[in-house]
Amino acid sequence: MSNSLHTVTPVVLSSTMSSRVPGCSVYLKMENQQLSGSFKLRGIGYHAQQAVERGATHLVMASGGNAGLALSCAAKIMAVPCTVVVPVTTAAPILHSLELDGARVI
């Protein structure tokens, strides 16, 4: 399972931001195109993958946002169950996305 879970995302020139910084070209790394919607899949996916390779059979994390989404995405890709413990203030769309990925939400 040594393949990375994240995707290679493009770097694009931002003409608008570049025009505001004299003498510089500003580029944006489009990490929103990761399967989980943020850059957090890179790190969390790596550590989740390492845990599974060492024998973990269930992944658990406390998060109310992108970190939990990254874990649930990684777990779904690896077909490993996961639980995400969320604060009561977690937004409904986040809860829905976690559940769509198959995470147990507490």
UniProtKB/TrEMBL annotation:
EC number(s) on record?
Answer: 4.3.1.17
> What is the top-level taxon of the source organism?
Eukaryota
UniProt domain Tryptophan synthase beta chain-like PALP: residue ranges: 6-106
- Provide the catalytic activity annotation: L-serine = pyruvate + NH4(+)
Q: Which GO terms describe its biological process?
A: isoleucine biosynthetic process; L-serine catabolic process; L-threonine catabolic process
Query: Which cofactors is this protein said to need?
Result: pyridoxal 5'-phosphate
| PROSITE patterns, per database record | DEHYDRATASE_SER_THR (PS00165)
Q: Which GO terms describe its molecular function?
A: L-serine ammonia-lyase activity; pyridoxal phosphate binding; threonine deaminase activity
> Mind telling me which InterPro entries this protein's record contains?
Ser/Thr_Dehydratase, Ser/Thr_deHydtase_PyrdxlP-BS, TrpB-like_PALP, TrpB-like_PALP_sf
Q: Which UniProt keywords apply?
A: Lyase, Pyridoxal phosphate
- Pfam families xref list: PALP
Residue ranges that the Swiss-Prot or TrEMBL entry lists as coiled coil: none
| The family this protein is said to belong to | Belongs to the serine/threonine dehydratase family.
Its name, as the record gives it, is L-serine ammonia-lyase
Q: Which organism is it from?
A: Timema poppense
Upper classification of the source organism reads: Eukaryota, Metazoa, Ecdysozoa, Arthropoda, Hexapoda
